[in-house]
Amino acid sequence: MNSVIDLLTRHRSIRKFKPDPIPGDQLQAIIASAQMASTSSSVQAYTIIAATDPALKKELARLAGNQAYVEQCGLFLVFCADLNRLRKATEQSGEVFHQNTESFLVASMDAALAAQNAAIAAESLGLGICYIGGIRNNPDGVAEALKLPELVYPVFGMCVGVPDQEPSLRPRLPQTAVLHENGYQSDRSDEGVRRYDETTRKYYEERTGGKQSITWSRSMADKYRQPVRAHLKPFLEKQGFRLE
Ligand SMILES: Cc1cc2nc3c(=O)[nH]c(=O)nc-3n(C[C@H](O)[C@H](O)[C@H](O)COP(=O)(O)O)c2cc1C
Fold this sequence. Notes:
By secondary structure, this protein is of the alpha+beta class. It has two domains: 3-168 and 229-238, NADH Oxidase (3-Layer(aba) Sandwich); 175-213, no CATH class. Helix content is 47%, strand content 12%. It is built from eleven helices and four strands, in the order ααβααβααβαβαααα. The protein has helices spanning 3-8, 24-35, 54-63, 68-72, 84-92, 101-124, 139-145, 175-178, 186-207, 216-224, 232-238; strands at residues 46-51, 75-82, 128-132, 152-161. The protein has a four-stranded antiparallel sheet, with helices on both faces. The radius of gyration is 20 Å and the shape is globular. The chain starts with a helix and ends in a 6-residue tail after the last helix. Bound molecules: flavin mononucleotide.
């Protein structure tokens, strides 16, 4: 349809990178793109930390559950939700800073929107990316390694680099499951999931030469049959966030 939509619909995460560093002008363009993402009331409640020190990247790879590509990629970016800057601006203006679940969501959304713009910009330069939620496995360690102040938390990381693999595209839910008209349509969603379970079963069978045959519903059940990262609430409270 056009080159932007072609790029968006060709996305696949890259988990093997050539060691090439990202040139400064490319980093500048990626961050400029991130910064032009829409942002709630212009709060820009995020900070992006570029991990360039090899020892730091190694430590972050470990903290993310030994994901080697965090260390191997040319550039590792950590997207942090940041209310610290807003608190300073409010207090320096002589006002009391109020925060709650809404401001937490605003900062997390701003970080995610900036990140996705960065991802698309990087892909448009021929680079590959992979989001790394694994850094939330050990948020205390990440906060310490990155010297995060109060009211800042690491939402996720992102590997950026020159791809050294050509993975196939991962199928998504049928559009009928995610696009409903004039109200929530459970039957469209349920029917879409039934079709998607067949698609994903075939996808994994083909990808693993028949060794793995698992549907999307089964893998979601495996993930959500226990609490996921239950340590995050106490961590966020320790960082000074009030989820009220
Ligand atoms: C917030 C977020 C966190 C993610 N965390 C990880 C991660 O820690 N490790 C990883 O290998 N992939 C991670 N991914 C990548 C997803 O697994 C991937 O986007 C998804 O399976 C769809 O595949 P695709 O990106 O190749 O289309 C993450 C993606 C997102 C959006």
